[in-house]
Amino acid sequence: MLRAELHRVEKNNFGKADDLTIYTLLDDYAGYETTFYGQHGISFLIDVAAGNMRRRILFDTGQSGKSILHNVERMGLNPKEIDTIFLSHCHYDHTGGLAEILKAVDREVTVVAHPKIFRRNLVEKKDFRHVGIPYTKEEIEKYGAKWILDAQPRKLMESVTTTGEIPKEERVDFEKEVTLGLYTVEDGKMVKDDMLDDMSLAIKTREGLVVVSGCSHAGIVSITKKSKQVTGSHEVKAVIGGYHLIDAEDERIEKTVKNLKELEVKEIYTGHCTGLRAECKFLKEFGGRFEKLHSGKVLRL
Questions:
Q1: Beta-bridge partners for 271
Q2: Nearest 5 degrees, angle CA 179-CA 239-CA 79?
Q3: pLDDT by residue (tens digit) across 212-228?
Q4: How far apart are CA 194 and CA 182, in angstroms?
Q5: pLDDT tens, 21-43?
Q6: pLDDT score, position 8
Q7: What CATH superfamily classification does 3-166+173-300 receive?
Q8: Residue-range domain boundaries for the chain
């Protein structure tokens, strides 16, 4: 994709996709009785057509390109057809496979991410472990990456845009705090990291808005609302990805499900970091409109 095709969003000139297929290239769960690889992380190939334009957008790269490329082969896909790579946030399980993927593509590729994606990102567990992107900007450029680092919503093609960052003050009340204890370093001091680099994709289709998220550190309800605002959409067809409720309190899970129902989301597809308790709640409340993601799952929307 030419870099000139990526530009800022204008809501009054935002077309709709004619065709959308989302291939789950990687998830923590490999599915029942399959030959796909599962690994902690997530990756989608988003194949979208709008008018006379068709693009294949790679959404996140898991923590290993090897696992993704195995699944790509099993699904009969070709990594050389990837036009653009979008990184939802800095974490290694969403960015670790980037170098191997770029080698497989074997040409220059536009990589879209937030300007803060290369910062130190530390998780507070037994110690403060760096869990951010395992490469420098320059290292990845050697493999053909052409970076577009933008905190604002940016149109990737007709009908597809990034959400841009969602500042803490714009998030709904119960999503203002990140569920995971994360820190970064500013002016030599360790401070809490609000994960401003957490961005998602919003795809406007003829059946409604499709939201694709990596880990939803900004809050999946806040992300869905921002997606509606950026695209000018009213109906939400589907919300897809990891919701990072695996370490959330029951109250936050309840509020998340309640708010997505109030937003009249038609279909829920979750995996990766969503967690069993949250998925059980979604299944109970959404019934047949809920599906669990797994490596190899294909969504034709």
A1: 242
A2: 100
A3: 999 999 999 999 999 99
A4: 8
A5: 999 999 999 999 999 999 999 99
A6: 59
A7: Ribonuclease Z/Hydroxyacylglutathione hydrolase-like (3.60.15.10)
A8: 3-166+173-300
Give phi and psi for 159, each to the nearest 5: 90, -5
* Whole-angstrom distance, CA of residue 106 vs CA of residue 278: 39
Amino acid (one-letter) located at 211 = V
Q: Report which secondary-structure segment, H or E, holds 182.
A: strand 182-186
Q: Which residues contact 262 (CB under 8 A, 6 or more apart)?
A: none
* Closest among 34, 85, 90 to 55, alpha carbons compared: 85
Tell me: pLDDT of 1 over 60: no
**Mapping DSSP to helix (H, G, I), strand (E, B) and coil, where does residue 174 land?**
helix
Nearest to 61 by CA among 29, 107, 97: 97
Q: Characterise 248 by phi-psi region: left (phi > 0), alpha (psi -120 to 50), beta (else).
A: beta
* Residue 237, amino acid: K
Distance of alpha carbon 171 from alpha carbon 255, whole angstroms: 14
> Any idea what DSSP says for residue 137?
H
| C-alpha pair distances (Å), 258 with each of 251, 261, 288 | 11, 5, 17
Q: What does the DSSP 8-state code read for residue 140?
A: H
**SS in 3 state form for 65-122?**
HHHHHHHHHHCCCCHHHCCEEECCCCCHHHHCCHHHHHHHHCCCEEEEECCCCCCCCE
Please calculate the CA angle 199-294-134 and round it to the nearest 5 degrees.
45
